[in-house]
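Let us practice reading a record.
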Amino acid sequence: MNDSRTPTPRLGTADSVTPVATDARRTGLASTAQARPGAGGAGREQRVAVGRLPLLAGGALALVAGLWGGLGLLEVGPAVPRAGFAAQHGPLMALGFLGTLIALERAVAVRRVWAYAAPALAGAGAIALAVGFAPVGRWALTAAAGWLIAVYVVVVLERRPGREVIVQMAGAVAWYAGGLLWIRGHQVADLVPWMMAFLVLTIAGERLELARVAFLRRRASDGLMATAGLLTAGVLISVPQPGAGWRITGMGMLALAVWLGVYDVARRTVRGSGLPRYAAVCLLSGYGWLAVGGMLWMIAGRPDGEFYDAALHAVFLGFVMSMVFGHAPVILPAVLRVRLPYRPVLYAPLALLHVALLVRVAGDLAGIAAGRALGGVLGELALAGFVACAAGAALLSRSQGSGSRGSASQDSLSQGSPSRSPRSRDSGSRSMESS
């Protein structure tokens, strides 16, 4: 899928940062945009990558089913379709929804057709899990992780990667190892450290990449590698010794949160305005929740009951979803060629997310079931609200872009100037080929 006129960037190296990645650096977001020339679509409306939309269908269904299952666990909302449906809430959200998005972003970045098998398998596994074919879903989601590892090994490692790629690949290995445990019959609660490691290490690798681009000293990056190693050790120990493993994993999460809070460029961009400030607020608040989650894991070991709910959602909802909110304005244009311009309204679902999590965690720790349920419902409303705000901003931007192009065309005709042909208009998007 490579364009012969556009050199393939080396992911995980300085080569992966192109001039078009200025927005990613300015906002403090390392993403596919750095590896996809023209991803921002500045000044020119690009055609939507329609061929990638089916790959997102499984992820979208996993999100809907996961939120439905979450309401079932809270014992509110519409009845779940069958017994055991609510228990799949965690895998649907962490592997079905987020796993599909991450695998698709990696496939777009490496620009190889075969790499799209990873998001396709993840989406298919999510659909199978949601409709009741649990064994098929487990195998497909685990196969997706294996394919994602192949993307890193075959494509990324051959391009002299930096440490950040090793950290991200460790996350994919954690997904795969957790999937094997799942296939062998382990309960979802046993998979929690592995699903957490997949998401946290993937995000940490992305942040390390941007920190390196911002001229981070190698000695400072040693700290992140040490925290990632501590977290990984805890995950491994959690299989034979769950209590000790969860506590060590919590130590790794807390140390990682401190490292990110000290070295991430979000500390500088939060003093800006517009999208850079919004993204930094998302990131820094997420690091705070990662620290809270790490402390809860350290205190309780492998928790149960309400403490289990608080420990998990501090990480998966507070940290991970804050990262999703903050990265979406850069990742969506790179993956789908759909502009997601910054609008102040994006702060509304972000604020609701954190209020909901505060209510939920407080209800959990105080043993107030009503507080836990209220926080859970508000959290789901925050996720739905963000999707609605993002879709509205993207549609508005596209309609405005169409209107401006139409006006420009009329002006061109009225002045007797020939308008560019469709072939010429589309030439700017050739470096972002659809699957």
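A brief commentary: Residues 1-44, 404-435 have pLDDT under 50 and may be disordered.
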